[in-house]
Amino acid sequence: MLMCGTVCRPRTITREIERHTAASQVILVDTDAGLGYLKSPNNPMGPASVIAELVCAELGTWFGLNIPPFSIIADSQIELVMSGLRRVEYPSFFSKHIESVMPFDGTDLFLHKLRNSDDIAKLIIFDTWVRNFDRCAPGMRNFDNLLICKPSRKKLYDLVPIDHGQCFVEDGDFIISRYDAIVVRDETIFGVFPPFRGFLTHDSVRRAVTKLQSLDRSFVEDVVASVPAAWGLGPNASASLTDLICDRAAFVVETIAGKIVTSPRLPGVDEND
């Protein structure tokens, strides 16, 4: 089941609240469904960044990550302008604003208080699968798009990953509309931040790998087919993107466990050890 628009379905933008000047120039807006971040397909990073946002939001939600509710806004009765007087175009990607969040501080302070510590293994495997250069390119760390959320009246916290506009890239260039065998077999591990290591277990990695192993191609085809035609993906690029997602998943399943835990248990073999 696709999740776009199922939890949050804004129909009307009522006001602009804040323009962000980062690369994709998202705009915080108020809507009839609450606050959220609007990303236009003509942002400076191009339509590939909104395609990546939508596709990765669907894949991440399926994978069990706490992706904020998201939707597509078809139009607006008020004109919105990004920095540099660039008018927002529609349809645009919308990600709901989450209350009671803070950026991950790069320590294990809140990791001990997670409701589900398996989210750490899931996040590493997901970021490696989609090659998330923005959050965790080799040699750099960007904690701004990994949030810690404390749900209302709860004692424990959740990891909330956001901003996936730079996934499926090669050397900083988007490859989201074409198949690249070198990228499929990239052995780089993304996002094993030092404080994460103490929370990685054989079982948490096994569960995440087993979930990725269950990825169904027909689901991926539905995800890619949900990309608005106005974003210019096209049938050939859609087929290439589907192949890239599925083949990359299979490669990660085959190779990742031994790289993030020592002598990993194998899915379907060592569960009873």
Strands in their spatial order, largest beta sheet = 1-2-3-7-4
Secondary-structure-based class equals alpha+beta
Cα Rg: 18 Å
How does the overall form come out from the CA principal axes? globular
Taking the alpha carbons of the first and last residues, their distance comes to 34 Å
Spans of 5+ residues with little confidence (pLDDT < 50)? 264-273
Element pattern in H and E: EEEHEEEEEHHEEEEHHHHH
Helix content: 25-40%
Number of strands: 12
User: How much beta, percentage-wise?
Assistant: 15-25%
pLDDT averaged over residues: 91
Q: What's the total helix number?
A: 8
Biggest sheet layout? 5 strands, antiparallel
If you had to describe this structure to a student in words, what would you say it looks like?
This protein is an alpha+beta fold. The chain is 31% helix and 17% strand. It contains eight helices and twelve strands. Strands 1-2-3-7-4 form a five-stranded antiparallel beta sheet, covered by helices on one side.
